[in-house]
Every structure is written in C-alpha cells, then in structure tokens.
Design goal:
With 301 residues, the protein is of the alpha/beta class. Helix content is 40%, strand content 18%. α1 crosses α12 and α8 packs across α9. The radius of gyration is 19 Å and the shape is globular.
C-alpha cells in the first residue's frame, strides 16, 4: 500500500495500453475525493499505446513489446510521478522484464498483483473452487496469474485460463456492442466447457481493465451458462482504492485530472467510454473530452 505521509503535492500516473485503465483513474479520483483533507493531487492517465495498428497483443515477439513499453516508461518518468499504477494486465505481465524496472526508484503497482490478492481473499475458505481467468493473449500467455495462484496453494487443475482474442479492442470501440456480446458469449462458453460439472462454484477474474466496462455482459453470460455460485472479480476496483492518505492539515482537496495519448482518441470511443466513466467520476470523463494528443509523447523506431 502506498501512503505518502506529509507530501503537499502528489502526482500519480496511471497507464494502460489503451483506454481500459481510465476506469481505474475514475475510481481513484472518486476514492481520493472521499477524503476530507488531502494534499494537492494530480492524476495523469498515460496511454502507452503507440499506434492504432501497433497494439501490444498483435506484436509478434515479446522483445518488441518490451522495447516499446520500456520507451513508454521512460516518458512516464519524465513527468516526475510519485507513483505509477500499471492499470493493464498485459503491461503488468511485461513490466518485470523491462530495463526500466531494474532501476526505477518510485513505487510501481501492478494490477496483476492486486488481482491475485483478490483471488486469494475470494477462495480463502474453498481451495477446491474453480477459477477462470479471462485475459488478453499476452496476459494469458505470460502465465503469471496461474503461477502465482498455484503458489497460493491452489491445485493447477482448478485453474482455467481463457485468452479472449480482440475482445479488449472491441470493448474500446463500444463496450455494449453486438460484437462484444458475441465475443464474451463465445469465450464464456469455451471456458465453462473446461469446468464441466465438477464444480458447484466458480470465481471469474476479469484480467483486463477493458473488461470492467462490459462487466454486466460477463455477469449475464456466466449466469445463463452456469448453474452454480458465481463470483466475478474486477481488479480495477481494488486498484481504484490503492492509494491511502493520512489526513493532512488542509481544508479541502484539489484533485486535477489529465489524459495524455500518443494516438488520437475517436469521438465514438470517447462517447461510449464517457457514459461509463461519468458514473464514478465526471471529472475524469471531462479530462478525456479535453485530452492531450501528443504524437511525440514517446518515440518509436
């Protein structure tokens, strides 16, 4: 847990390889505004996507992904943050292998670690429960969730991983589209086929920050296709309350929010995502509307 004690100005950078992490940004803004006394807090969303055609999950090699994320991390550090929240399971899976991670001096919190904590809490009294991890291809291929859950004492045969190809991209376009509905239906069906009739309860982990935007569709599909007890874990919620503050001698809070991106954000993306962001933070929705488009945010070869 990150607790700045007497810091009068706090800068938090939240990053994702797309716009899914904005849900974390919105939850964090909402959480911090619940404090009566806070330092001056600047929340910056940094989109680590380099190009619409160059998503991390379409890159052919891990070396390419690491090189790009390393460059993006260097650019984030130029903002002089006090903490970086990696609100992306794909980037969290890559972070520990980047060059920057070996020398960085500030706290960096991975959403994968928070997701594992949630799983451990969820199954504490039932290690026989089946666990389904829904994630991007990069996240699932990294195997980090599965390995860490096994280390918590869960048998490997209780863990099902489901790589949801292109789902995050479709959710970014429109979280409630017919295409998203079809993809979630297909992936839930495939995952549950591996559960079979051997479990009375399952814990489903939404291991991609984009998936939280389509939470209700996941809930509906799982309920329609599985007769037992279902728990759905959304790590976005845990990361959205991760920054804990001591009350300082200030009479009001003064959060500021900013969104910066190397790629342009389409009007339709903005409208669809803002409908969801506004529920938690109209401030972040407004920041997205007024985002900073910077093609030189970080350089790529």
């Amino acid at each position: 847990m990150f607790s700045p004690l007497q810091k009068e100005n706090l800068k938090v950078v939240i990053t994702d390889s797309g716009l899914g992490g904005l849900s974390v940004h919105a939850l964090l803004d909402k959480h911090l505004r619940s404090y009566q006394n806070t330092p001056n807090i600047e929340l910056i969303f940094f989109n680590s996507l380099a190009d619409h055609s160059l998503g991390y999950n379409v890159m052919k090699t891990e070396a390419q992904k690491l090189q790009l994320f390393n460059i993006a991390l260097k650019s984030m550090l130029n903002l002089n943050p006090d903490i970086i929240l990696i609100a992306c399971n794909t980037l969290s899976a890559l972070y520990g292998k980047t060059k920057v991670s070996r020398s960085i001096k500030i706290p960096v919190i991975s959403i994968i670690d928070l997701g594992i904590d949630m799983v451990q809490e969820s199954i504490a009294n039932n290690l026989n429960e089946k666990i389904i991890i829904f994630g991007t291809e990069t996240t699932i291929k990294s195997n980090q969730h599965k390995q860490q859950i096994i280390r918590k004492g869960v048998s490997e045969d209780k863990i099902i991983t489901q790589a949801c190809e292109n789902l995050e991209s479709e959710i970014q376009i429109n979280p409630s589209s017919k295409k998203v509905d079809e993809l979630i239906d297909m992936n839930v069906t495939e995952a549950l086929a591996n559960v079979g009739n051997s479990s009375e309860s399952i814990t489903a982990v939404l291991a991609c920050t984009h998936y939280g935007y389509s939470y209700s569709i996941f809930k509906e599909k799982l309920a329609n296709k599985f007769n037992g007890q279902i728990k759905i874990l959304n790590p976005n919620e845990k990361m959205g309350s991760i920054v804990k503050l001591d009350n300082l001698n200030k009479k009001s809070n003064s959060n500021t929010n900013k969104v910066i991106s190397r790629v342009d954000i389409t009007k339709s993306e903005m409208i669809n995502i803002n409908l969801l962001l506004e529920k938690d933070s109209p401030n972040v929705a407004k920041a997205l509307e007024n985002y900073t488009f910077d093609p030189n945010l970080f350089k790529i070869d």
